[in-house]
Amino acid sequence: MENIATLFLAANPVGTSQLALDEEIREITQKIRMADGRDVLQVISVWAVRADDLLQYLNQHRPQIVHFSGHGSKDGELILLDNQGKPKAVSPVALKALFTTLKDNIQVVVLNACYSRIQGEAINEVIDFVVGMNKAIGDRAAIIFAASFYRALGFNRTVQEAFEQAQTALLLEGIPEDTTPELLIREGVSPNRRVNVAKMVGEDSHSSTDGRGLNSGINDPDVMFNLSVVDDHSENAISNYWRSAPTNRSLTYRSEMISDEIHIWPESDYLSALYKGGPISGMEYWYTPFSWEFPELDIKIVNNRAKTMFFTNAKFRIVESKVNPQPILVIERNLYNLLHFRLVNEGWGHIRDCIVKFNIKDLEESFSFTDPLPFIISKDGIDSEYNIDITNALGQLGVKFRDPAHTNINYGSSEPVIDSGPFGRVVQVYGTIRFKFDTVAEKDREVTVKFSTHVSLFYPGPGAPAPPTYLYEVMFRLDESNYELDVPISQVLKSGEADRFKLKIGAPKSSVHQFQLTLMYGSGQAITSPMVNLSLLLPRSQVRYISSNEGRRMFDQLNWLE
């Protein structure tokens, strides 16, 4: 059995307070020795670490876990040694570059140093799990936390469970520092993952594997069956009809083999920015803010049997299907939405306790997110959308309206609706949006997002046409367990041949599904995939247009189905 390598990097330069690093490695090693996985979880320790040592030892050992123990600064730097043994600060930018270049099999990074959450946020953009400290942490607390964390991993606990057990260990010892460590999880990564021995397998560029093999469990030793997900858009991707979405709004899917199960999740630069606090900008779009389509399973089969294989059915055995409650906040920048900007929820969960703090400046003025935010609008809950009215704020800034009640405005006119004031025809609104929400794995998550958008003080003229729509190969259900869906297929695979085809999966809402796929051939013979955990995204706006008469007519005209 191959080992899961933990690279323990220790640094305590001359001139810094002395830490009990030797006691920490002793406690970690002792806890692992008493765990079930003591023969799998291997610890490699490196002492008096210098900056160049990071490159050397990450290349040399290619660990699954990297653990740094030492000092951190309030500026978000890790303190290593220079050539004279004195302190040398390493910036978060440098650490992110390091792990981007040398991430290899690294799945977890533990920064057991004061103020290391700042470094952790940078590293978490490329590494799935990062543990960092949000303030100074005591020597004893750091040791107990680290030892308990690795003990739990040694008993094959998930990363989330190991982190929670380490926090509990501090409470049991009466050390009130359990909230100092924070677990950062990269967007789209399941918190229920275990650290696994990652094997590098080559795949072609059209299937997303993140460098980890997705070869499925094979029922027939003479048949190679591989399941992954297509990570690029087909010609049928739904966006803004003839106005394509910017690159950062393209939703694609990634897949990864984790603990003998395949995990598939949606990914985009916009979603990553949203849940990390922004900044996000108002989106100008007609029908949907994203370039999007349902996920397509990429099926590859090689027939090494002596006989031809006739595939007749693809059977989905779905263990569970449920709605994903995570909202997706979008700011619609619509110049027809006079004196307002609209908060749109493209997810299927509820936005709670929403507080918008903002300021307003002329379009030609520069602004900073550190500016005062004097205006506040609160909303208890948002299901689909909410229009933010900035009329009162404009009035406080000296705007005089031509029709204060807005009852006699010509909606086809391009004339301004203000008599006087410090602004032109369009203003920029910027600030923060704080809200709470649930995810599949977490309740009452809270995020504060920096935002900016444009709001019009005049009516620009006529609008845009209606949107296209789309159909799908197989539609999963919602809130149902242990059901099967049978999709007729017709694939002929002669001896020695290889084949590749796709299965597009749809659902009525954004949802998560756990299933296995079985391909039937011959007289009742079958090959079956490992368990697949799929997180599927369907923007709420898309459903409105699919269900509309105009949308259905547009679909019939465009013949989107392959």
Fold and architecture overview:
- The structure is a single chain.
- This protein is an alpha+beta fold and 562 residues long.
- The chain has three domains: 4-185, Rossmann fold; 207-270 and 291-325 and 468-558, no CATH class; 329-456, no CATH class.
- It has ten helices and 31 strands.
- The strands form seven sheets. Strands 12, 13, 16, 27, 29, 30 and 31 form a seven-stranded mixed β-sheet that branches. Strands 2-1-3-7-8-9 form a six-stranded mixed β-sheet, with helices on both faces. A five-stranded mixed β-sheet has the order 10-11-15-28-26, with no helix packed on it.
- Helix 3 (92-101) runs parallel beside helix 4 (117-123).
- The longest helix is centred in the first third of the chain and has 16 residues, at 139-154.
- The protein is flat.
- Mean pLDDT is 80; it is low at 198-219, 238-245, 407-413, 463-472 and 550-562.
Radius of gyration: 27 Å
Q: Number of DSSP helices?
A: 10
Between the first and last Cα atoms, what is the distance in angstroms? Answer: 45 Å
Q: Give a quick account of the main beta sheet: strands, pairing sense, barrel closure.
A: 7 strands, mixed
What portion of residues belong to β-strands? 35-45%
Tally of distinct domains = 3
Helix- and strand-based class?
A: alpha+beta
Number of strands: 31
Please tell me what the overall shape is: flat
Mean pLDDT reading: 80
This entry's quaternary arrangement is: single chain
Helical content, roughly?
Answer: 10-25%
Low-confidence stretches: 198-219, 238-245, 407-413, 463-472, 550-562
